[in-house]
Design goal:
The chain has 336 residues and is α+β, with helices and mostly antiparallel strands. Strand 1 and strand 2 form a beta hairpin. It is elongated and about 70 Å long. It is built from eight helices and 23 strands. 22% of the residues lie in helices and 40% in strands.
């Protein structure tokens, strides 16, 4: 886990340095998927209407989607959690279940899978839904493990939030686990990916930004190419044939998180060559400061402008026609 998840954190010989670095890593974490977003200490599942947040003063690190599935063999995880200070692990799994399966039957099936058959199940709240909770211990090759299991069933899916670790560690940090489960928000109703405010500001919940557009009357549509769906999102705004804005966010994943250069080149090709339709004649202008970095800026003979930058994890791009690019970029804000 340390090799895969924390290649640039701090040596274990410096516990205080590790704790500080973990908090920074948690706070700066940003990832997007087709139906989810992971920003800082919060994970949002838009499709199922679930929000899980870990304490900001803790040390839990989160991985979602395909990154999460790289940690636990044989389980189709939606979210993986790990706190290297308390040695606690956690996972969230959302899986289809038979229409006849209720919360009690699903909870028993999860306990059987873990190796806790017959463990007592308490009635609890799983967000706004009725759920079940159990706690018990099993013997594994590594030694004895203690498990804290929360489940519910909604809309033909089973939801299980499971934590585990050495028994003494679980007991010592039970309050931290309780805070996570009590703050869990879940209704089962889908959450909006974004919304247009009455003042013309677009708020993108999945991609994590706000974009104040000049004035009102803008139409908005998802313009994400199918091959980019999931790790990217593209939003098109139009008010007339002459007023066009396009916002693009690309999450290149761990391989692109160091400087994003390869992803920037790919986005440049996509925005300048394809969407601005300028295979020839595009001129790169002096950089424009955006998102705390020098963004690449292009002007095209057809009047379109493109600005591209990154924040160390994700790549961002704006395309405009008939709209002041500098003013638009200055209003663009990343959301926590």
């Amino acid at each position: 886990i340390f090799r895969a998840g924390f290649p640039r954190i701090a040596p274990l010989a410096d516990p205080s340095g590790l704790e500080a670095a973990l908090r920074v890593a948690q706070r700066e974490r940003r990832q997007i998927g087709l139906d989810h977003a992971l920003r800082g200490s919060r994970y949002t599942d838009f499709r199922h209407g679930l929000i899980l947040e870990v304490p900001a003063d803790g040390h839990f690190q989160l991985w979602a989607g395909s990154e999460a599935r790289g940690f636990v063999d044989g389980t189709d995880l939606d979210l993986y959690l790990f706190d290297p200070i308390s040695s606690l692990h956690g996972m969230l799994v959302v899986e289809p279940v038979e229409a006849t399966m209720d919360v009690d039957a699903y909870h028993r099936a999860v306990l059987d899978l873990i190796g806790l058959p017959g463990e007592r199940a308490d009635s609890v709240d799983f967000g706004a839904r009725p759920g079940r909770a159990s706690e018990g211990e099993t013997e594994l090759e590594l030694g004895r493990m203690r498990w804290v299991v929360h489940t519910t069933v909604a809309n033909g899916h089973g939801f299980r939030l499971v934590f585990w670790g050495w028994p003494d560690d679980v007991r010592a940090h039970r309050d931290q686990l309780r805070r996570i489960t009590e703050q869990l928000a879940f209704t089962g109703a889908p959450l909006p990916l974004g919304q247009m405010r009455s003042d013309g500001t677009w708020v993108d919940h999945r991609m994590g930004f706000t974009l104040p557009l000049p004035g009102t009357g803008w139409r908005s549509e998802d313009a994400t190419p199918p091959r980019l769906a999931g790790p990217a999102g593209m939003r098109l705004f139009t008010r007339s044939e002459e007023e066009v804005v396009m916002a693009l966010v690309v999450d290149p994943g761990p391989s692109g998180s160091s400087d994003g250069q390869a992803a920037i080149e790919a986005v440049t090709e996509l925005m300048v060559r394809r969407f601005a339709n300028q295979r020839e004649g595009a001129v790169e202008r002096p950089p424009m400061r955006w998102l705390g970095r020098d963004g690449r800026r292009f002007e095209m003979p057809n009047g379109m402008q493109v600005l591209i930058s990154h924040d160390g994890q994700q790549v961002y791009a704006l395309l405009t026609h008939g709209v002041d690019l500098a003013a638009l970029a200055s209003g663009f804000q990343l959301t926590p």
